[in-house]
Specification:
It is a single chain. The protein is about 70% helix and about 0% strand. The protein is mostly helical. It has a two-stranded antiparallel ribbon. Strand 1 and strand 2 form a beta hairpin. It is globular, with a radius of gyration of 25 Å.
């Protein structure tokens, strides 16, 4: 009965979800944002340095606190203006998906995005800061959705004009780089006139308008209900061999970055962190060992298996799982279309989410503010992501222990089935 239902569901879901995961605009947004991760990860660590987890009376703490404004400058020029970099990557990826020049797509996307921001005329008395300036806040997560929309508009204009051959062609003797510049004159003119005209001459506030539309979405995404829904969908898709993290993450990541950047901004300003569930919250308290919190299953397979296959797979897959790489577990057991292991694969991360959310909301653990490298072992990543909170290590270990408890009865059933099968094979050999 279950197998028929699973096959039917897989047949109905696999095609549409695969198409969604490979949709060029979603891929471009995903690739553009992922390209900023090195800057986000490195930049956010300067917040820990400026806010050291050390007694305030120590000399080093006093020095770092006194110089915090200068220490966080690398953060302000990386993660704080992440959309500026993400738009460049989105434009590049989307243009290349159409077979166009990626660099030209990046420049057009960046231009369109910057044209949505009205510069401010500043005059600093007795200082050299005079003239026009761009408000940095709109270059960060607050402008993410505007950046995504305008990058897509710019590249679509570029694609349309290229497809219709609406470009200036130069003689073959002209160097390729120069010829390409002239070919891009037409789409550049259209992008500047359209986006600039809407912003400066029609007075349309892109950021204010989009901000009002997405505010309910951003607020809702930080709720426990939203966290549980995201966890369920991610693991549910994985159970049918569909990369749940790719589909759900592509849709949710812009919102997660907004939540994270709000926390890092508050931290750099010495304010209380407003959000519980940016992406590092999922990484270090829910996806411990990978999707499904399979670290518990890997430990059981390595040390409690009676069947040769499970023990061998567990010993092989445990080390990658410690570093949050769990494809060997997902496809080796397999969890995909496995009625026994699918249940804890979904339940374990949901319970982790509820407990971690409650602990964070109650102030038992700091809210996440650092995007630590995802390949770190769970407790270490949790420690760094929460601004060096030692309590996060304890919570991570408890959640790993909980995953072992949840997986255990289902693991025993699966392991016993393997053992019976192996004994039959030996008897028939």
């Amino acid at each position: 009965m279950f197998e028929k239902f699973a096959d039917l569901l897989n047949a109905k879901l696999s095609g549409p979800m695969t198409k969604l995961a490979s949709e060029r605009h979603l891929l471009a947004v995903r690739d553009g944002i992922i390209a900023t991760l090195p800057l986000i990860i490195v930049g956010s660590f300067f917040l820990i340095i400026a806010n050291p987890p050390l007694p305030a009376s120590w000399g080093i703490s006093k020095f770092l606190t006194a110089n915090a404004a200068n220490i966080v400058l690398p953060y302000r020029m990386t993660m704080f203006i992440m959309t500026l970099y993400a738009v460049f990557g989105i434009g590049h990826s989307l243009a290349e998906s159409y077979g166009l020049d990626g660099l030209s797509g990046s420049i057009l996307a960046e231009t369109a995005y910057l044209l949505t921001i009205a510069p401010v005329n500043i005059t600093a008395k007795g200082a050299e800061l005079q003239g026009w300036a761009l408000p940095m806040a709109k270059l960060g997560s607050a402008g993410m959705f505007v950046g995504i929309i305008t990058a897509i508009i710019a590249v679509e204009i570029y694609h349309f004009m290229d497809a219709k051959n609406l470009k200036i062609k130069m003689p073959d003797a002209v160097p390729p780089a120069v010829a390409k510049s002239f070919e891009n004159l037409t789409p550049a003119a259209v992008v500047i006139l359209v986006i600039g005209g809407i912003t400066f001459w029609l007075g349309f506030d892109w950021h204010g308008f989009i901000g009002k539309l997405i505010t309910p979405l951003v607020s809702a995404s930080d709720s426990l209900g939203s966290v549980i829904l995201i966890v369920f969908l991610t693991t549910f898709f994985w159970c049918f061999g569909i990369h749940g993290a790719s589909i759900v993450g592509s849709l949710a990541r812009p919102v997660w970055l907004i939540l994270l950047e709000a926390n890092t901004t508050a931290m750099s300003n010495g304010q209380a962190l407003p959000n519980i569930a940016p992406e590092p919250f999922y990484q270090w308290f829910i996806w411990i060992g990978g999707a499904g919190c399979t670290i518990g299953l890997a430990i059981l397979m390595a040390f409690r298996s009676r069947s040769s296959y499970a023990k061998s797979l567990g010993k092989t897959a445990l080390l990658p799982c410690i570093f949050n790489i769990n494809e060997p577990i997902i496809f080796g057991t397999p969890i995909v279309l496995n009625p026994t292991l699918m249940i804890p694969f979904i339940i374990s991360p949901i319970l982790n989410a509820v407990i971690a959310y409650g602990a964070t909301a109650a102030g038992l653990v700091n809210r996440v503010s650092v995007n630590a490298p995802w390949t770190l072992p769970g407790p270490i990543g949790a420690y760094l992501a929460t601004g060096a909170d030692w309590r996060a290590i304890i919570l991570s270990i408890l959640l790993i222990a909980l995953s072992i408890v949840i997986y255990y009865p289902f693991f025993k059933m699966w392991d016993n089935e393997l053992l019976v099968e192996e004994e039959k094979n030996e008897a028939n050999a």
